[in-house]
Amino acid sequence: MRHSRPLFAASVVAVALAVTGCSAGSASGGTATGGTGGTNPYAPHVVNEGFSTKGGNVNVLMSSDFQTLDPGNSNYVQTANVGQLYYRTLTMAKETAGQPPKIVPDLATDLGKASSDGLTWTYTLKDDLKYEDGSPITAADIKYGIERTFARDVYTQAPQELNAVLAADTYKGPYSGGDLAAVETPDAKTIIFHLKQPYPDFPALASRSNSAPVPQAKDTKLDYTNHPISSGPYMIAGYDRGRELKLVRNPNWDPKTDENRTALPDTFSFSLSTAQATISQQLLSDSDPTAITLDSNGALQASDAARLSDQTIKPRTAGGLLGCTDVLNFNTTTITDPDVRHALALAMDRASIQVQYGGPRFGKLTNSYLNDAQVGWIAPTLDLDAAGKPKLDEAKKLLQGKTVPKTLTYGYSNATERYKNLGTVLQQNFKELGIDLQMVAIPAPNYYTTLAGDQMPDIARAGWCGGAASGSTRTTVDPNLGPSLDGSSFGFSNISRFFDPTISGEMYKLRDTNGSSEELNTKWTELYNKAMETYPIVPLFRTYTSSVVGSKIQNAQVGYFFGSIDLSTVGVKN
How far apart are CA 317 and CA 557, in angstroms? Predict the structure, then answer.
């Protein structure tokens, strides 16, 4: 999904099955007070709900470019959000404000049919599906889109959750030769998946972006991000990297085949280099009535929080409590001692960090990466202060007799001021321990690729929306703390690089374990708790997003999964 915020979806798993509600309450109409007042400060609020008129342009203001537009190389919620407009998948995680998404058919006629032993899932494509050039969308194109994501030497951020359950442990992608035997396409409209073990939640995995069709003849590898071929209601008319993106209607998209996307605006114009403070002021002042943003927390600055109660701004503020969590990751390959990591966690003044985010209006302090809307939830066991206050005496006691690093690095996205401010709080906290924390600004478009590479700093903020579109704890635990596909090292989206031979080995085995959803997810939570005893991650906040929109914007809801305005429902009044 995203955390601008690109949320690492490595920071995004689209799984929504068992959970039908959320502690934030059910979706509300346009008159709800939501996050701008009322008895429940975390209630959802949809702006101008019920609009159905087509036409107009929506201006999307963003502080940085997308990490990628290639559905096969994306684990980011911002890409997943805009991706709804130009690509479709077998199934789809459909958003409703304030609720975990519901998995619905998209390119497929239904949610799939499982064999009696649970090892095979079969999908049939709808009739009259076409790309932007009028050519037919085929099952072979979907298979090829999945095959590409096995080429991890090319697509370093390719989603792997679907791949992990397929009987394809040795497959290396289409560029290495060979066929993905675990996926069959007996005809143009049928696609069959062969699994290693039964996986009842497979329809959710079929909503991941790697089930988006990619015609092999159009595959330009890493250059595919510049113009992915559209299977959705919009297509790319122009893309100037780092500056602007223009989407126009796809004339060969048939709304009769797509009940999930309203496709109301004629065009979407994305500005990709506007400073967040500028975005915030433009939206608050309504200088562009057709504007929205996908930046985290609606690009609002901490100093803007009080203005959300203004009666001219309050009705234009979409809001909702998300299934997304912000965390700090320790690089466990550089901070190797669990006691040192534990001490650093105890020393953090998370309450002051919350102030840098804008206070409780922007999120609830949490001691867990998981939340109570997920199947298998177990209350957190970390000994962090529930109110976010530091425990310096306990931290210093843990460090007695330890080799304590004199200097550590904190990496942050240079497009977001509060992430820099977060680092200044940590600097003050760690100074009490005799540690000098050095700040490392990372260009926003390269942020998560940096965290995944050799330049990962000692500490880095990240976010995850796996629990947002998920009924299961596995979809948070496995990507963030789990092992690689072969079980030999840490997984591709495991930013902290956590790997313990015993705990990671149990996670690897659990991937292939049969059983009830609740039973399995409880086991995943138990392993999560064991891993967290070594403090590879420090949970910060479960995010509440307030996003101010222009006065002509309609149907503006904050996606529980996306953490920003859901582009698939938005409209604009002419």
Answer: 9
Residue 132 included in any domain: yes
Which two structure tokens, joined as six digits, stand for 385?
A: 């202060």
| Domain count across the chain | 1
- State the CATH number of the domain containing residue 515: 3.40.190.10
What pTM was computed for the model? 0.77
DSSP E strand boundaries for 400-524: 407-413, 436-442, 459-464
Indicate whether 31 belongs to any domain: no
Residue 29 lies in a domain: no
Q: What is the pLDDT along the chain (574 residues), one digit of tens a residue?
A: 333 333 333 333 333 322 222 222 222 233 233 333 445 667 788 999 999 999 999 999 999 999 899 999 987 788 889 999 999 999 998 988 877 788 999 999 999 999 999 999 999 999 999 999 999 999 999 999 999 999 988 998 888 889 988 999 889 999 998 899 999 999 999 999 999 988 888 998 999 999 999 999 999 999 999 999 999 999 999 999 999 999 999 999 999 999 999 999 999 999 999 999 999 999 999 999 999 999 988 898 878 888 988 999 999 999 887 778 899 999 999 999 999 999 999 999 999 999 988 888 788 899 999 888 788 889 888 999 999 999 999 999 999 999 999 999 999 998 888 899 999 999 999 999 999 999 999 998 788 889 988 899 999 999 887 654 446 788 789 889 999 878 899 988 899 999 999 999 999 988 877 767 788 889 999 999 999 999 999 999 888 888 999 999 999 999 877 878 999 999 999 8
Residue 548: domain span: 1-21+45-574
Of 25, 19, 76, 24, the closest CA to residue 204 belongs to: 19
Phi and psi for 267 in degrees, rounded to 5?
-145, 160
Q: Is residue 56 domain-resident?
A: yes
Q: How far apart are CA 479 and CA 312, in angstroms?
A: 42
